Write the structure tokens for this entry.
Amino acid sequence: EPESQFDFLPPHSRAKIDYVPAAPDVALRCIEFSPETSRVPFRMLFVPGWISWMDSWRHFLNHLAARLPLHYLETREKPTARVNGTAEFALHDIAGDIVNVAEHYRFPDGEYALVGSSLGATAVIEIANRLPKKPFCIVLMLPNADFQMPRSIVILKALPYRLLMPAKRLVQWIMVKFKINPDDADHRQHFIAALTAADSVRLKESALGLRNYRLDWNTLAAIDIPCLVVGAAADIQHDQDNIMKIYHHLPNAEYRDLRTFTSSHSSRAAQIVYDYICEKYDQSKATP
């Protein structure tokens, strides 16, 4: 791996790349970032969003990699995943991968924080009560109640491979025109870069796999793990009303608003997450 891929790391931090068997037909790339000296005794598993690429998280990761061991998990729709032709891309498949990765690393019960963004956050909701070894807290950054796929997306089923690139360019135009805050130039830049780098076939299959997902709101009431929900009021890609609804349905949650999508990927966001998980870890150890 080129060193430049991790040029955002703070001095003396290290990056170790693993390919983790997440399903019989899927191995996921997971990067373990380790500081020279950890400030805390726990670890963090971080699952970014759909087609999200690492460079958009460089400030977030830089801040956290100096403070604690962090596992950055790239989900199965990303081009880094090793996937054979039988794999599916529904939310429950992606969520199940996270369970298997947590088991692979043998995260101890109550000794790790589980953090997800967008698709990753929604997957965390789905598995919060399924994990054999539970995290001491979870963080949901811009979680989705659904993925706002238009009904017309089913035409992708019949779309031949040669038309996937033109379709990708059309998606890019629609998203930039209608779903990205025009005042958030960094979001636009990172979205275009991530979409350009995305595997066209997996992009198609994952869009089809996610199109029918709807959050079961009753799931939230059963999650008693401490939870931080992060929204961004000026972000129009994610449904902020649904994010608030998710927050209100969780019995043990706190909420922070970071205003823009780009701010949710910043060092400030990282500090908010770090402060929260440190507080919840200390509370978990103080409770008899």
